[in-house]
Design a protein that fits this description.
heterotetramer, A alpha+beta (about 500), B mainly alpha (about 270), C alpha/beta (about 525), D mainly alpha (about 325), A: alpha+beta, 19 strands, disordered N terminus, D: about 325 residues, mainly alpha, MetI-like fold, about 80% helix
Chain lengths: ~500, ~270, ~525, ~325
């Protein structure tokens, strides 16, 4: 039987409850299983969670608190006009299948991502690349068609990791990267195993092997942790159980932030949401803290605009959208909708949307706004809300890093069209010096806050529950990743 | 009036009463959330405590009763409404191609895994109470069709049917005037059993999020929401479970009681 | 020496008395018959003797079999006696055998239960016993592959496998044809002589009793009203109930003369084939010829009988005449018009009365709706007042009170239901009625009343009927002309008396010979 | 017997064809474009179009149906869009969870139901009978996902006798069986209740038959009559129920697989539907329908083995 053959071949990882024996191996659980193992051709974040920094590396990479640090490119210099980037690659780097990693592979990866028939989910990241030239095996030069202050940031994304032409065909089921861990085995639906890459070019990781388990069901997650079947759960699905883990000496709970701005999106082109007064009324009718407590059991930080609060450039604009039902009713009256109106509230699957939706629906009902809730699966949400823009209100969390630029795109699903905002964004793109950028970012955040484009609710928190002895785990999620490079038991 | 009948009728009346009462009055309005005092244990202001949104669980159970009973009732209605005529028709044309076709069709619908198809239907038309009704209803049709045909076939050989044929009555007229009244008891009994299965199916569908959508309450979804709280506030998960259990138990006992009361074929067991 | 002594036996079930003060003695090698109408307690006496009373039955008195009192014997000991010291044969052979076990195994089981023998030996003895009861079929066959008569032989073989001292037979031949019945009775008599065992025969058929039994006990409402050696009892018949019983079963009915000989129903060489199971996947489906070019004519007001064993095609002919089933050949006409499904005017001329009084009425409808069902055939059926009048008249014609109209069928006895069936048939004043085994399910006394009713109706207005039955004595008393049918063919027909007096066709001769005859009773006629 | 089998096979193939058409039609109608879903919110229209072409979604319905059925007949169910692995291997892995779970649950249910049903029938109306009937009423009424939740709470979290879920693979059969125990119990409960009731009523019907009275007249005790004659006849309707239950267990365990996060066929379908991986949905549902029809066919054949009357007609 095919199944047995594969099983006999792979090392049988003995999962035993007590940590003593398995000091150098770890079982990590995340909610969703990656559909496949090719980070460059699928949007599913679970792929990056497992493979980013562990199996695959890009020219640059995110560190624990979101800063951009060196990756395969040890150093780089940028031309005056900001158009040409020259990367000096690390020496002696090999892929897991033994083939060497050099400038040719970088050119192959970037050209593949920006090609005409490319199926890369974040193709926009590579849009500005005009030319990739190999200077010598360890030096590669990238020329842009227009200056892009975010280019180094873009190259750190999971979708921009460096792959090899030799192993590209079977990448979906047998990923070959340059990272500190190599892919060992994948029992679909149950677990995925990585083992340490013995000839890794950088500092060797403490862990000898790691097993990823996929548990989306909240009770099962709670049971698995309590029964010590799992050592670390990144993105624990049931915030209501966290107090129990905090109280249990066996465990530690890390409450961090993600890049996910959770918003109540309003369809700016559909009446009555085309009237800013109505949008403002909706925003004031919302009590953010009640939603955070009710839906997320206190996990998450309120936001006044579409920006991650842990980012240094965040501007606190909470004052613009204080919870004030009386003001909300008067605004509605002013907008000629004294006795309220009915609209649709379309919710994607995650619990922040489903539970948040029920709370928001009851809060809006207080000021006279009736909402018809329809729960959609992601595929339906993308078709109805995102592509066809057939919705009044929706709740979604935008988890891509630094995605304030979506407000510059008029046919993005909430259809906000403001020329001044676009001007600020264009200028931002052209400037590279940090002080200039943070001033422009502040201005951008203020515009969308005062325009009440959407009701900005809270930054989606992420809770990591782990055995007390484990160190080196990321607290925040600047990008979807479970970086095991620095993780170890105790010492 | 056997013991089963009394207990069954009592339980069923209690829950249908709850459902009916919920139209007029519920202790608290379940649409108002009260996050600060959520997960209160039963007793005091809230007889059965409050759920994770601070809503009164008793009111939720009452509103949930309305959904569950309505969905199951209409689903059984669909099953009977289409299944019984099909069964009668197949029996009237016993042995013909039509009879074969109906029976093959029944086997085919039975072959489909009911839950999977329910998920497919709700995936296609979106989750809602109506789609749950359709999904459950479809799988009731073959049950009634097969039962009706099975009960009607032997009747067609009986003399009083031949007498009716001698009086020139057509197959359709005979099916309605003679066959249907004589299998009515069977329908009532099977109806209650399918009703209880309908409640379980509705609970299963809403448990995986495909039944009635908020703000309408449903026992299955109460269970799903309360699942993660089972270790901190067990009552939130236990109470809806018991509500489903007692309603289904009531209906099954009612079914058994009716079976004995309506056609007391006293099964005298030989020594 | 007496084999069996029943002393003052009485049995109650749930408080209602079923048997009261039964006293009966039986000697070995002797056939004692218990007769009486249904519900008289005959079977209960048999079951009490076997210790197989239903749950909840309370029995007092004594049943001594060879000195041991059955009522006091504990269950395990009783089990050792059943099948060993006493055996029992039941009425319904079709359901008396385990359908999923071979007949050899079922007979061998009796031996294996009572004796420490090897399986092979038990099977050998079983095969021998099956041979002895005249069964020429392999013991490895299954019950469904055998006819009713053959299955009854297997039941008998099982009962006597251990050569019991007492054999009880509860209506052993009621469900069988006349010819098979005769052969089974001969078998039982042979076994009694050969094994020297006592046979307690229970039957409601007085002719069988008179023919076979050494002693007779007549039971009514749970009591033995009269008991004695057969010749003395037949001659003396001290108890009025005994006399009434014998008189009713020998009843001759006087019919008015046939008015005209205008033809009414004409059946000309009708052929009816039933498709049987397909043997080869592609060849034509083999068929079973139920009616093999049958021809008969019935004139207006003429009473014709049709006699034959079960399975000879009687019911098929009825359904064909009524137009309920298509025919593959020949024609059926009433007043020269062909019978077809839709033609109401023609169908109004024919009605039918079935055998099973309990099955011929819809239990959910009231009597008035039941008997007016044929109005469906009339173009403008009587409504309101006329309808009520028609119902009252129909009920009166069959001797039932007008208030019967409001009742449900389960409130009537078997005899009353047959009267209602006749009322239903007469309500549209048909020219021809088909009686399909209409009185076979009735007790002797009730049967006599129904036959008298039919005779009165003929006197009131000319009424032709086709009387179908397997019971020769009934047909003889109620018809002018008779047809004898065998395997789908009419083998003989003629005036009833001449056919019964000297039958021409060998089959008819064997039929008449097999039917048990009631001895000519001097004063039977004036008893009623 | 062969002719019976051939006849049934012909009608089976007809039903399978009709089933495949119905499944394909229902699945194709699901709204939500798989390609758009896979590429996420930031994907550009041209990348989505490129992926649709790669997945062959733009070809006419009929040719896609023909390709799917054609492949299935040769055992190649096509390649899953999201998992990028052949559907056949996906199913092969998952069937090694769903099939043993179904068999395990069925054995548990039968081992409990048979003695209970027989005991209740032999002591009809007695205390034992009422108790068992009461228990079966409860068994049928308990929603099995709620029961599963309680099992996990007690045995996995508090007592830690069993793992809370997951499936360690058959490398260590003992651990695998242990992992399947709680789910099997949760699945077996309602089935055992139903089977016990059917066994009891079928046995009571048989005990009312004439051939039992004949057996008693031959000298068999009540117990012997029940075991030697009534039981075998009572098995026939019970067989049907077991056949139905097996096919239900195979596909109906979706929720239990969800609660115990077992990588079974049910969960595969559920995830495939939400990920709009239509090829997987179509193939797995078709496989389930095929298994159910095969199980019914086998049950029919065993009928003939158990009941000689059918053997003759077959």
């Amino acid at each position: 039987m095919h199944h047995f053959k594969r099983l006999a071949a792979s090392t049988a990882v003995v999962l035993c409850a007590s940590g003593a024996l398995a000091q150098d191996s770890i079982t990590v659980a995340i909610q969703l299983e990656p559909p496949n193992l090719d980070p460059t051709s699928g949007a599913a974040q679970a792929i990056d969670s497992v493979l980013y920094a562990n199996v695959f590396e890009g020219l640059t990479r995110f560190d624990a608190d979101g800063a951009i640090i060196r990756g395969l490119a040890q150093s780089w210099d940028i031309s005056e006009d900001g158009l040409t980037y020259t990367f000096n690659l690390a020496a002696g780097v090999t892929f897991h299948d033994g083939t060497t990693m050099d400038a040719e592979d970088v050119k192959f990866s970037l050209d593949r991502a920006r090609a005409e028939d490319s199926t890369n989910a974040q193709k926009a990241l590579f849009a500005d690349i005009a030319e990739v030239t190999v200077i010598d095996p360890l030096i590669v030069q990238v020329t842009l068609s227009q200056p892009n202050g975010m280019f180094l940031f873009n190259m750190a994304w999971g979708d921009a990791v460096i792959v090899a032409p030799e192993s590209i065909d079977t990448i979906a089921t047998n990923p070959v990267g340059t990272g500190p861990f190599t892919f060992a085995d994948w029992v679909q639906g149950d677990r995925l195993e990585l083992t340490r890459n013995e000839n890794y070019w950088g500092a060797a990781p403490a862990l000898e092997s790691a097993t990823f388990r996929f548990i989306s069901d909240p009770t099962a997650a709670f049971a698995a942790m309590m029964a010590e079947d799992v050592d670390v759960f990144v993105g624990f699905p049931a915030p209501e159980n966290l107090p129990q883990f905090e109280a249990d000496p066996r465990f530690q709970v890390l409450n961090g932030n993600t890049e996910g701005e959770t918003i109540l999106a309003m369809n700016n082109k559909v009446a009555p949401f085309d009237n800013p007064l109505v949008r403002r009324a909706v925003t004031h009718a919302i009590d953010r803290q009640a939603i955070i407590d009710g839906a997320m059991f206190g996990q998450g930080t309120p936001i006044g605009t579409h920006f991650a609060p842990h980012n240094p450039d965040y501007v606190d604009l909470l004052a613009n959208s204080q919870f004030d039902p009386a003001l909300s009713r008067s605004l509605l009256a002013e907008a000629g909708l004294a006795d309220g109106f009915t609209t649709t509230l379309k919710l994607p699957p995650p619990s922040y949307a489903r539970r948040g939706g029920e709370i928001i629906a009851s809060q809006l009902r207080e000021v006279g706004i009736e909402t018809e809730i329809t729960n959609l699966e992601w595929a339906q949400w993308i078709e109805e809300v995102f592509t066809n823009k057939d919705f009044g209100l929706s709740i979604v969390s935008h988890t891509e890093p630094m995605d304030i630029n979506i407000y510059a795109n008029p046919d993005y699903y909430f259809q906000y069209d403001n020329a001044d905002f676009r001007a600020v964004l264009d200028e931002l793109n052209a400037t590279t010096d940090p002080a200039g950028r943070s001033a422009l970012l502040a201005q951008a955040q203020t515009i969308i806050s005062e325009d009440y484009v959407n009701a900005y609710l809270f930054q989606l928190g992420v809770a990591t529950v782990a055995r007390a002895e484990i160190t080196g785990l990321w607290v925040n999620q600047p990008t979807a990743a479970v970086d095991l490079t620095g993780v170890s038991w105790g010492n | 009036m056997s013991r089963n009948l009394i207990i069954g009728a009592g339980l069923t009346a209690f829950f249908t009463g709850l459902a009916a009462l919920s139209f007029l009055w519920t202790p608290y309005n379940i649409e108002v959330l009260d996050i600060p005092n959520r997960l209160l244990t039963p007793g005091g202001a809230h007889v059965l405590g409050t759920d994770h949104f601070g809503r009164d669980i008793l009111s939720m159970v009452m509103m949930g009763a309305r959904t569950s009973i309505a969905v199951a009732l209409v689903a059984v209605g669909i099953g009977m409404g289409l299944g019984v005529p099909l069964g009668l028709w197949a029996a009237a044309r016993r042995g013909s191609l039509l009879d074969d076709l109906i029976m093959r069709g029944n086997d085919l619908v039975f072959a489909f895994p009911s839950l999977v198809i329910a998920i497919l239907i709700t995936a296609v038309f979106g989750p809602s109470a109506i789609n749950a009704i359709i999904a459950i209803g479809i799988f009731n049709i073959p049950v009634f069709a097969r039962l009706t045909r099975g009960a009607a076939l032997p009747l067609w050989e009986r003399d009083f049917i031949l007498a009716a044929r001698v009086s020139g009555k057509g197959a359709a007229r005979i099916s309605v005037e003679h066959i249907l009244p004589n299998i009515a008891n069977l329908m009532i009994v099977q109806g209650t059993i399918q009703f209880s299965l309908g409640i379980l199916a509705e609970a299963a569908l809403s448990y995986i999020g495909l039944g009635a959508q908020p703000p309408t309450a449903s026992w299955g979804r109460m269970l799903a929401d309360a699942q993660t709280l089972v270790s901190i506030a067990p009552h939130v998960a236990l109470i809806p479970g018991f509500a489903i259990l007692l309603t289904v138990l009531g209906l099954n006992l009612l079914g058994d009681g009716l079976r004995d009361w309506l056609d007391p074929r006293l099964r005298v067991v030989r020594t | 020496m007496t084999l069996l002594t029943i002393k003052d036996l009485s049995v109650q079930i749930g408080g209602t008395p079923v048997l009261q003060g039964i006293d009966l003695d039986m000697a070995a090698g002797q056939i004692t018959a218990i007769t009486g109408e249904s519900g008289s307690g005959k079977s209960m006496t048999a079951l009490a003797t076997m210790g197989l009373l239903p749950q909840g039955a309370v029995a007092q008195g004594q049943i001594l079999l060879d000195g041991t009192d059955i009522l006091q014997t504990p269950e395990p000991a009783l089990c050792r006696m059943r099948g060993n010291a006493m055996g029992m044969v039941f009425q319904e052979p079709m359901t008396a055998l385990n359908p999923v076990q071979t007949i050899g195994a079922q007979v061998a089981e009796t031996i294996l239960i009572h004796e420490q023998v090897t399986k092979a030996e038990a099977h050998a003895r079983a095969a021998a016993m099956l041979e002895r009861v005249g069964l020429k079929v392999a013991p490895t066959r299954y019950p469904h592959e055998l006819s009713g008569g053959q299955r009854q032989r297997v039941v008998i073989a099982m009962a006597i496998a251990m050569r019991p001292k007492l054999l009880i037979a509860d209506e052993p031949t009621t469900a069988l044809d006349v010819t098979t019945q005769a052969r089974i009775l001969d078998l039982l008599q042979g076994l009694v002589d050969e094994f020297g065992m006592g046979l307690l025969l229970i039957t409601h058929d007085l002719a069988v009793v008179a023919d076979v039994a050494d002693r007779i006990a007549v039971m009514q409402h749970g009591r033995i009203v009269e008991e004695g050696a057969t010749p003395d009892l037949l001659r003396a018949m001290r108890h009025p109930y005994t006399r009434a019983l014998f008189a009713a079963s020998a009843r001759a009915v006087d019919l008015p003369p046939v008015p005209t000989d205008a033809p009414l129903l004409a059946v000309r060489n009708v052929v009816r084939d039933y498709p049987t199971k397909r043997l080869s996947l592609f060849g034509p489906r083999p068929t079973f010829r139920a009616l093999n070019n049958v021809s008969l004519t019935i004139n207006r007001g003429e009473r014709v009988g049709l006699v034959g064993e079960s399975g000879c095609g009687k019911s098929t002919l009825t359904r064909a005449i009524l137009g309920l089933e298509p025919v593959q050949g020949g024609t059926i006409t009433v007043d020269d018009a062909p019978v077809s499904q839709g033609d109401h005017a023609l169908r109004r001329k024919m009605q039918v009365v079935f055998q099973d009084p309990y099955g011929s009425f819809n239990p959910r409808h009231r009597v008035d709706r039941l008997i007016t069902e044929p109005f469906h055939l009339l173009d403008n059926p009587p409504k309101g007042e006329d309808r009520a009048k028609a119902i009252a008249k129909a009920l009166k014609d069959v001797g039932l009170p007008p208030d019967a109209a409001g009742k449900y069928i389960h409130e009537f006895s078997g005899g009353q239901r047959q009267r209602l069936a006749i009322a239903r048939a007469l309500i549209v004043e048909p020219d021809l009625i088909i009686f399909d085994e209409a009185v076979s399910a009735l007790d002797v006394s009730v049967r006599a009343q129904v036959l008298d009713l039919i005779a009165d109706l003929c006197r009131k207005r000319p009424l032709a009927y086709l009387f179908i039955s397997h019971d020769l004595s009934v047909v003889r008393s109620i018809t002018d002309r008779v047809l004898v049918m065998q395997a789908g063919k009419i083998v003989e027909s003629g005036v009833t008396e001449t056919v019964f007096a000297n039958p021409q066709h060998p089959y008819t001769q064997s039929l008449i010979a097999a039917a048990p005859q009631l001895p000519e009773l001097a004063y039977a006629a004036d008893a009623l | 017997m062969i002719r019976f089998a051939l006849g049934r096979l012909a009608s089976l193939t007809a039903s399978l064809i009709v089933a495949s058409i119905v499944i394909f039609a229902v699945v194709e109608v699901i709204p939500g474009d798989p390609a758009a879903f896979m590429l996420g919110v930031n994907a550009r229209p041209d990348t989505i179009a490129a992926l649709r072409a790669e997945m062959g979604l733009d070809e006419p319905l009929v040719s896609r149906y023909a390709a799917w059925v054609g492949g299935m007949v040769q055992g190649n169910f096509g390649v899953s869009w999201t998992y990028k692995t052949p559907v056949a291997t996906l199913i092969a892995d998952r069937i090694w969870v769903s099939l043993p779970l179904a068999i395990y649950a069925l054995t548990l249910s039968t081992l409990v139901a048979f003695p209970a049903g027989i005991y209740a029938a032999s002591r009809r109306g007695g205390a034992g009978d009422t108790a068992i009937m009461g228990a079966t009423q409860l068994g049928v009424a308990i929603p099995n996902f709620w029961f599963a939740m309680i099992l996990v709470l007690i045995f996995a979290i508090n007592l830690r006798w069993f793992s809370a879920g997951g499936f360690p693979g058959w490398a260590d059969p003992w651990a695998a069986l242990k992992a399947l125990t709680l789910p099997a119990i949760a699945l077996a409960l309602p089935q055992a209740a139903i089977l016990a009731r059917v066994m009891r009523s079928s046995l009571l019907d048989m005990l009312g038959e004439d051939f039992i009275r004949t057996a008693r007249a031959k000298g068999l005790t009540r117990r012997q009559a029940l075991w030697r004659h009534a039981l075998r006849n009572a098995l026939i309707p019970v067989l049907t129920i077991i056949g139905l239950q097996f096919s239900f267990l195979l596909a109906g365990a979706i929720i239990i697989e969800q609660v115990f996060f077992l990588p079974g066929l049910g969960r595969l379908i559920f995830q495939a539907i939400s990920a709009r991986d239509l090829i997987v949905v179509e193939s797995v549902v078709m496989l389930l329908v095929f298994t159910v029809i095969m199980v019914n066919f086998i049950v029919d054949l065993t009928y003939a083995a158990v009941d000689p009357r059918l053997r003759a007609r077959a």
